[in-house]
Amino acid sequence: MIKAGIIGATGYAGGELVRLLQGHRETQIVWYGSKSYIDQKYSEVYQNLFRIVEDVCRDDRLNELADEADVIFTATPQGFLAGVLTEEILSRTKVIDLSADYRIKDVSVYEKWYGIEHKSPQFLPEAVYGLCEINRGRITPATRLVANPGCYTTCSILTAYPLMKEGLIEADTLIIDAKSGTSGAGRGAKVQNLFCEVNENMKAYGVASHRHTPEIEEQLGYACGKNVTLSFTPHLVPMNRGILVTAYASLKRKPDGSLPSEGEIRSAYEKYYGEERFVRLLKPNVCPETKWVEGSNYVDVNFVIDERTGRVVMMGALDNLVKGAAGQAVQNMNLLFGLRESEGLEMVPCFP
Amino acid sequence: MIKAGIIGATGYAGGELVRLLQGHRETQIVWYGSKSYIDQKYSEVYQNLFRIVEDVCRDDRLNELADEADVIFTATPQGFLAGVLTEEILSRTKVIDLSADYRIKDVSVYEKWYGIEHKSPQFLPEAVYGLCEINRGRITPATRLVANPGCYTTCSILTAYPLMKEGLIEADTLIIDAKSGTSGAGRGAKVQNLFCEVNENMKAYGVASHRHTPEIEEQLGYACGKNVTLSFTPHLVPMNRGILVTAYASLKRKPDGSLPSEGEIRSAYEKYYGEERFVRLLKPNVCPETKWVEGSNYVDVNFVIDERTGRVVMMGALDNLVKGAAGQAVQNMNLLFGLRESEGLEMVPCFP
Amino acid sequence: MIKAGIIGATGYAGGELVRLLQGHRETQIVWYGSKSYIDQKYSEVYQNLFRIVEDVCRDDRLNELADEADVIFTATPQGFLAGVLTEEILSRTKVIDLSADYRIKDVSVYEKWYGIEHKSPQFLPEAVYGLCEINRGRITPATRLVANPGCYTTCSILTAYPLMKEGLIEADTLIIDAKSGTSGAGRGAKVQNLFCEVNENMKAYGVASHRHTPEIEEQLGYACGKNVTLSFTPHLVPMNRGILVTAYASLKRKPDGSLPSEGEIRSAYEKYYGEERFVRLLKPNVCPETKWVEGSNYVDVNFVIDERTGRVVMMGALDNLVKGAAGQAVQNMNLLFGLRESEGLEMVPCFP
Amino acid sequence: MIKAGIIGATGYAGGELVRLLQGHRETQIVWYGSKSYIDQKYSEVYQNLFRIVEDVCRDDRLNELADEADVIFTATPQGFLAGVLTEEILSRTKVIDLSADYRIKDVSVYEKWYGIEHKSPQFLPEAVYGLCEINRGRITPATRLVANPGCYTTCSILTAYPLMKEGLIEADTLIIDAKSGTSGAGRGAKVQNLFCEVNENMKAYGVASHRHTPEIEEQLGYACGKNVTLSFTPHLVPMNRGILVTAYASLKRKPDGSLPSEGEIRSAYEKYYGEERFVRLLKPNVCPETKWVEGSNYVDVNFVIDERTGRVVMMGALDNLVKGAAGQAVQNMNLLFGLRESEGLEMVPCFP
Questions:
Q1: Cα separation of B348 and A21, whole Å?
Q2: Residue B224 annotated to the active site
Q3: A352 vs A346: CA distance, rounded Å
Q4: Residues of chain C contacting D292 with CB distance shorter than 8 Å
Q5: B252-266: b or e for each residue (b if 16 or more CB lie within 10 Å)?
Q6: C121 and C107 in contact (C-beta within 8 Å)?
Q7: In A166, C160, C344, D62, which residue has its Cα 20 to 30 A from C215's Cα atom?
Q8: Tens digit of pLDDT for each residue in C160-186?
Q9: Rounded to a whole number, what is the distance in angstroms from the first to the last CA of chain C?
Q10: Helix, strand, coil shares, percent, chain C, to 5
Q11: Mind listing the domains of chain C with CATH numbers?
Q12: Which pLDDT belongs to residue D238?
């Protein structure tokens, strides 16, 4: 039985981790860390877990926790983990970080986009970017530190990856228009996230400045083998869960001026996702919908070729709290401990 | 492995059955019946099941199905099952009916409230009302026909049952004000259920005439040992899932004129639900919320004593598609086949 | 041109007042009071008013405002106005208070339910309860202080008033089950009002203890000429605006044991509302829906007689920010200044 | 008093026209055309108009209506008006068509995208495209036929127009990602528009094939003086009203390789919209939100320059039923009859 500790257990991502781990047959949660609710019963904060979880919330003492846990999940604000992580901790336990602290290899890029100093860049080299479908080979029992990808990032990368990797699109024409449910904004008490402000409303935010941009650029850069600069625009949607990505790029024309065919594009997706448990390439002409993956670890992707403009429109949908956060963290844990990758993640999406 | 067939597999309750049975370790679905989608892939109707269910939809041929299936779930319009059920079918398979056809013992009451003739009243005596927490003893491997309770009904009965059973309230003062998510209205294409008609709106409907009324009256009548006439008002709420019941009744005063105490009322609830897996009596002062049970088979109940009026306000919340339909049907199936009652139903509620 | 000042102009009720007064031909807002946003442009807080309102927010200085304004609207927390109101202010301007400070005549009842000391009970006798349809005769140019009714209260009273007044129901059997959109919870940044907590959820709250209860009891007590004790349960609904009231009461039987007829009940409603501009008695069998009154000053009411239980189910719907707050305040202002009662309130409900 | 007739009065756009015209001081509706509800009271179909509109619905007899009405609004399916319009009708009355029949000058483009034959192309030359802010000079008392723009179209064009017109962006790099509330899908009873299918869901549809594409291309082509081919992707959002457009284009670099400055872009918007009543250019860094224009005729626009990619992100928001349909139709009517352009359209947006 793997002993897991969670720091930041009462945020939405932390809460989802707790939910998922109840259904994981090889794991037991030994620490519900939540500075705001210390000594309060966890199930009083999340009543859905009433009579299911009996533990009380505890402090954020990572050092102490490192002794008790085989793996620590940190669902904490940016900069927290970087400020407290030590070699001593990593030598005793594994860490899966749901924050952005170890996602970006270039510390100056991190510091520019996040506006904070990185306190432990020495761990950046060993941190593995935990996008399982792409980095699976590097997430092994030997790995100590996993940087769990962001929600927008996971959806954006998986949507565009095969075409970037296969060189089927012009990398610098890539534009990602992303739409997110409101749980992505967290459980902090802010006026802008009140029901009446979000409901019956839609808006873009963080235009040309959202922090997930460099993370997407770095990973897609690895895919196509060169630096990528892209446009990324997040939007807030009046729904609890779900991210939908609509991505646009110019197709690379062949020497004869023709566009890649529907079949060629489809083959590229199949090459990378054909064997994947959690990525579903939909049938032609079926657009991904967030509702079809809700509550599950699936990512649904598809594409449409626009002959008129020479572009391809790529689409992807996932549940931001599952594949976009807690589910992917569990998937990473499974890889770290040599378990079946889908253990605890076999939930069928819930509709309606 | 139990072989299960579903008639009406593409309605919302049918779809939920399919979802739940994917996680049931002892069951295999052998027949996806859906007259509207014959020969179409089930996962094209419910894309959430893409790459999970590969079967195509089939016709409603109950007779043929009776040979293939150990149990048949009928999630069909009122009157359908009563019109086709035969001794021959029941001699070969078990039937769990999610419609109202065999819920009401008095055929004249059924015919009056539903406005249709009952075509096979001969099966009414043997049909068992499948509210597991109350009728568990009668749902056994010997049972052939289960009348799975309605969604409003399950929530209403379980909310009021202990106080009715223990004679703590005046039966004829009972008023049930129920609020339901829109999936309860089904997947039929009707203007009144369009997004724009339901969203940002709330209304009562079927006032003093809703068909679930006699079903609640009959069951609560058994509880208190006499005929009960009550007020039941359903409301439509702009949410997908969930039923919330707020029930009002005058407390029976003791000979000295005093009201039952908080402790006495609580004891009554604990007496009936203390050992129940799926009914959670909340802590004092915590009101049930539909979101805390969403996607799960739980019913959350609680109460508040109003000293000023001498009434008790009883509250209950469940997911209409799970405990209010498909989940309860699976719970009944588990009892019918001698399995662990919670098999396939151990989902933690999903929040947010 | 009437000069109006608003204290608490950046709450939802205050914002609605601003919206409504833009369409009022006889009024000009001279003071946008908002302690939280002093010196900030009002239209930066409410972008819907961009290029419509150019003023900046100002402090809550009631004394200074009394010199500038012919009427002051206070959309402030309980206790604020009672703490600052003076004879000097009232001698210079009229005050329409959207808080509860002067709604309840018995100061001990106020202090018990609100849990605060009333600082200026000397103004209670002259304060007029501003439910125009019932108290119109007392809201005149001579009136200085209007206690604008609460949102739940307005809906509850108007729904039950005719039958209480005409003695057609047993007063002490009255049970009011009310459902409210989330704007009624205000614009404060609280976790429980975040989008993800409210959306796809429904719950009761303040059971047997909500502060609007004594206000309803007092007014309905005047109607039937005796003290009334009733059950009132508010619920939170995932929609922005709207209150729906479902009220239950036993009909008074006639000496021969028969119930009042549909026609008799309807006549009672028509007697009080037949000439009312803003109360619409719907056609038989049409249930009020909050969406049909959204954005307008209308209250829709109707009823169903339940022969089986001898009860009547009364229903009412209004927009909590209009007829339940700002619209009624404008209606009161119109009466105070001898204007046409519907001036500025002739908006057609907005659907969908 | 202008006499107006509406054909298709019971669709959502028709209903909004009725709502707006109640507040128009120079117009009277003389004909509520609705084939589906002939002889039924209009206010039974739209209960928000109970006691406000007393008329009954009538047939679609355009010829007869032409004698009674000074102006006819047709809110009808594609092809209807083209099939019945005659010179005789146009010689007697004005027609404002909310369908697409006369929006596209090139009949072959219309027939290709709409898949139907155009039955009266002879009226195409005289039809004026009724986007008031751009075509105002051509919408005059002499005009007989106005092609009222589509909802996506109005928002898309107004968002990009100044930069296209001023040649600040590379026309063929334009990508429009549009998000719409569900009322845009109409009031037809379709499964895909049921509450449970739309709520908590988001999807793209009509990718690379939506019918509004050529309309946007034609109008923006006029703006920049050459043919434009662009990408347009509509999305369905779980809200009743509102369209949000996020548009991307590469900025034209100056001879020295530099990008246009923030000030230059802003000036272009101010040049075209500075004096416009209904187009609001927001302050820098404020993103348009659909809620801030709800229920009103406003379009809010703004932009962000992305120095990294050399692109500009343009954003626009409007209410699809007002500025995107009925409001613009009224604006056109005002121009046709020489009235103040904003008559009947001065509603302040409703928040929340």
A1: 10
A2: no
A3: 18
A4: 47-48, 50
A5: beeeeeebbeeeebb
A6: yes
A7: C344
A8: 999 999 999 999 999 999 999 999 999
A9: 34
A10: 35, 20, 40
A11: 2-126 (3.40.50.720), 152-319 (3.30.360.10)
A12: 98
